[in-house]
User: Fold these one by one.
Assistant:
Number 1:
Amino acid sequence: MARIPLFPIENMSVEQRRVYDTVVSGPRGVVVGPLRAALHRPELADKWQQFGEILRYRTSLAPRLSELAILVTARHWTSQLEWQQHAPAALKGGLSAAVVEAIRIGRRPAFTAGDEQAVYDFCREMHEEKSVGEETYGRAHKLLGTLGVVELTALIGYYSMVAMTLLAHEIPLPDGSAPELPPLGR
């Protein structure tokens, strides 16, 4: 159970319902996770969903790379709902099941694609070291370009905000689903 009320449609204000309808009619198709919390402030929810739509659906990054970054972020935070929403999208986007499983259990994947390894290393360093070293940054920049590393950094930050919101407010998993991420020994 969430720590805060999550709005059923019939209890939404006109402004909350407007944002809800915008999200449902967009590429997400549903309102899940952090947007359910953000609806307490409709303006925040609206800006949040716009930002998220840009970063998830309209970047220069291939879907497998965007979803890889999201999975690394979800695993870093052990964000169960974020993982459940994005692991299937990562597979659909072209990330291998072996890579997804390695990340899920907290192991370094064996990459066959250099761009996937560069994104993984960039994300891991940013999360673990709170910075990205010259060699890792240079590899990512060479493969993704300036726009790609800017978008990748924003994507990591956005999905960290998503994870923090889910965890702080204990936004529940959908009914009938179980956590998929085991605890990590740190």
Number 2:
Amino acid sequence: MMKKITVVSPCYNEEDNVAQCHAAVAAIFARDLPGYAREHIFVDNASTDRTVAILREIAAADPSVRVVVNARNFGVFRSTFNGLRHATGDATLVMLPVDLQDPPELLPEFVALWEQGYEVVAGARSTREEGLVLRSSRKAFYRIINALSDFELSPDVGEFQLIDRKVLDAVLSHNDHYPYIRGIIASVGFRRIIVPYVWKARKRGVSKHSLMMMIDQALNAIFAFTKAPMRFCTMVGAAIAALCLIFSAFSVIAYLVDPSVAPRGTTTIIVSLFFLSGIQLLFIGMLGEYITAIHNQVRGGPTVIEREVIGQATAAGTGPGSATATRTATQKTKRTARQG
């Protein structure tokens, strides 16, 4: 039976790019992957332009296309993670943004490596057509996350990865309210190979990733995959307490030896109070990040609410990793529990 390759493409207000993305992927399969079935899932994050209308026309003309339309904008990671639940392929390209900054031309090479036995074929942005500030910020972030994490996250690897069905099942087993997908893929393991490529500059439209959104994603990665921030707070708190004890002992000894050299005055007190207050607020903020993440997780609820799924009848999400299959399995489990 012909193997199927699934491509997931998140989009938001990309009316200038969705048709070009679909055409590029279809052409690559027709030219370089004729022996594989194609499944292209577009996940729309409640676009306000003509993106959904264009995707509806594409899906009507191409039975290999499925469109998941979200009820509101849930962010690129939640939206993409939910799109992965609809994937039914033997291998899945986790994220191909419709702006094609990640080159779809690498897909045949990814598939060839997957056929050789690699379960994760990860694209690495060895060269980026972007500014120095962004490049430097990304490098600093990955140094921090790798220093704090229990596993290595390759600095230039994003969600542009082809993963085997078993890897996708392992990824989807994570019940994460705010999934950091590249971190989840790295954490589950499996045999991996990295393919370097040039990350191209966007040709049409504007990027939807603001500075605050990237900061939010970075903080989510740090607090989701490591306990080091809380351990850092504990160690710093212990060190400050030790220094305070040493300073107190020094003050007493200095006063007994020569009262004139003992430190005194309001300046020392004010500086100490502000320093310790700043440390306390920093630690309370870190603790708040963890509490917020726990609060969002325990509240439950769906990762994404879908408004509609556009595509043929069999494309409504009945594959082994789809949302419908997950709900069906959950219902069966509940019925079995009640019967037992």
